[in-house]
Design a protein that fits this description.
There is one protein chain. Helices cover 38% and strands 24% of the residues. It has 13 helices and 17 strands. Helix 6 runs parallel beside helix 7. Magnesium ion binds next to loops. Pfam families: MR_MLE_C (PF13378), MR_MLE_N (PF02746). This is Dipeptide epimerase.
């Protein structure tokens, strides 16, 4: 099975409600879809999310990276030669992790299709191919966040990811109000998206711990590059601290673990550059006994499907799931693929990612 063509399309899916974090507000998934075609008539699918404030990737950089740099290396390559193909993707250029992720996802999709197995099985997974995700509550007025949290609990979500990091005093009030409202019906995860200083983070978490607010974890309280600050927080609070924007690839994870700067690692395919490095991170974390979450950016059911397959394959070490991208969307553009049903996500027996087609793609002309 040889690669004959690499096509790109623009996917636009409005969100049900604006997604607001300390870093940005976004109301539509506007992602680049990669389709890799082979000489036996198959197509592998991938997706890149342009999250410039986190990865530095934009629509323009993703398109240019795939069309001009990564794609040309792959034309004519044999899909069975996965490790070499992945190496060609990863060594094509520095950074550009979202573009690399999209291409890798499509390569893994085709590789699993070649052997007629769902991707999670090719990654060594067995057992029940089902995961349970949280739902993100955007940072907003307190009343709105409380209403959104109650609505999420009514929809069956038992874990809520509360966005904070905008205003420390208000953030404490936000979390106390949500905690009182959901009254033990959902676990609370906080994500400050780099919005606090180390000292603010410690005082906020102490205030919440002292008020009896149990938190499952605190995600990325301080700026991404402030690893000393992350360690400062981790050493001073009981709540487990998770690194997100601070860690992209395996080398950063090794450094973070050696410095004991966080308790948990958030793996996202858009940060790792795809599945190969995500597998490495999960394996490194397993060696050190560090738990991982699998997360996503504002992504649809294409790239999130790949994350679900990885989560099932690495269920022993990926113990927390934040794959709510498709639940935030007004519709699912994918025919086939993984079945997203609110908090429950299930993989079918279809080969690869199981994606038959993607509706409403706007073709992107080659440069
Ligand atoms: C969508 C997911 N639940 C999430 O919250 N991801 C954010 C980043 C999303 C973005 O800005 O695109 C995170 O974990 O920081
Ligand atoms: Mg985060």
């Amino acid at each position: 099975m040889k690669i004959t063509d690499i096509r790109l399309g623009m996917l636009r899916v409005p969100l049900k409600t604006p997604f607001k974090t300390a870093l940005r507000t976004v109301d539509t998934v506007e992602d680049i879809v990669v389709m890799i075609d082979t000489d036996d008539g198959r197509t592998g699918y991938g997706e890149a999310a342009p999250t410039a404030v986190i990865t530095g990737d934009t629509h323009g950089s993703i398109i240019e990276a795939i069309n001009k740099v990564i794609g040309p290396r792959l034309i004519g390559r044999d899909i069975a030669d996965l490790n070499r193909n992945v190496q060609l993707v990863q060594t094509a250029m520095e950074r550009n992790t979202s573009a690399k992720a999209a291409v890798e996802i499509a390569l893994y999709d085709l590789w699993a299709q070649l052997y007629g197995a769902p991707l999670y099985r090719m990654l060594g997974g067995g057992g029940d191919p089902v995961v349970t995700t949280d739902l993100t509550i955007s940072v907003d007025y307190i009343d709105k966040m409380v209403a959104d949290s109650l609505a999420a609990v009514e929809r069956g979500f038992e874990s809520l990811k509360i966005k904070v990091g905008k205003d420390i005093g208000l953030d404490i009030e936000r979390v106390k109000a949500i905690h009182a409202a959901v009254d033990g019906r959902a676990l609370l995860r906080l994500d400050a998206n780099q919005g606090w200083t180390p000292k603010q983070a410690v005082s906020a978490i102490h205030a919440l711990e002292d008020a009896g607010v149990h938190l499952e974890l605190l995600e990325q309280p301080v700026p991404a590059r402030d690893i000393d600050g992350l360690k400062y927080v981790t050493e001073r609070v009981h709540t487990p601290v998770m690194a997100d924007e601070s860690v992209f690839g395996p080398a950063e994870v090794i450094d973070l673990i050696q410095r004991r700067a966080a308790d948990i690692i958030n793996i996202k395919l858009m940060k790792t550059g795809g599945i190969s490095n995500a597998v490495r991170i999960a394996d490194i974390a397993a060696v050190h006994g560090v738990d991982c979450m699998i997360g996503c950016m504002i992504e649809s059911a294409i790239s999130v499907a790949a994350a679900v397959h990885l989560a099932v394959a690495k269920a022993g070490i990926i113990t927390k799931v934040d794959l709510d991208g498709p639940s935030l969307c007004t519709f699912d553009p994918v025919d086939g693929g993984v079945e997203f049903n609110e908090s429950e996500i299930a993989i079918t027996d279809a080969p690869g990612l199981g994606i038959r087609s993607v509706r409403g793609l706007e073709p992107l002309a080659r440069a």
